[in-house]
Design brief:
alpha+beta; globular; DUF3465; DUF3465 domain-containing protein; OB fold (Dihydrolipoamide Acetyltransferase, E2P)
């Protein structure tokens, strides 16, 4: 009886050890996958910038270096300038008729984005950072301080 109990306890301990290692492996795999996605997104953005492309769906992030006044002509857009990883800058034009405004946006804040890149001689513009009410375009978003704006 003692042998059976001892074997059972060893089996439980071994199962716990293997399960913990499986969880650690999964965490490492998830971190690697997130890094791969971020790297691919930055690569797509950098490629669009380098090749002076427009109408390219990209993701990335940057630090706010200037908060501009809203563009009120036609659809209203919240505007700000981000400094991105490569040292360049991007104007973000976020349609606030279709998505919520980022309230409390300040210089120095980090903003992640998913939208459409358009080349210009000042670095480029990111727009379509919102859902498409017609469902015909890939929805974009902005992320700031743990909130998503789409």
């Amino acid at each position: 009886m003692k042998k059976i109990l001892l074997i059972g306890l060893l089996g439980i301990a071994l199962f716990g050890y293997l399960d913990k290692n499986a969880q650690t492996t999964q965490i490492v795999q998830n971190v690697f996958a997130a890094d791969t996605v971020a790297s691919a997104s930055n690569s797509a953005l950098q490629s669009a910038i380098d090749n002076r492309q427009s109408n390219v769906q990209v993701a990335g992030s940057g630090n706010v270096i200037k908060v501009l006044s809203d563009d009120l002509k036609g659809s209203r857009h919240q505007r700000f300038i981000l400094k991105i990883v490569n040292g360049g800058t991007l104007l973000v034009a976020h349609n606030i008729d279709l998505a919520p405004r980022i309230n409390g946006l300040n210089v120095g804040d980090t903003v992640e984005f998913y939208g459409v890149y358009e080349f210009n001689n000042k670095g480029g513009v990111i727009h379509w950072t919102h859902h498409d009410p017609r469902g015909q375009h890939i929805g974009g978003w902005l992320k700031h301080n743990g909130s998503t704006y789409q």
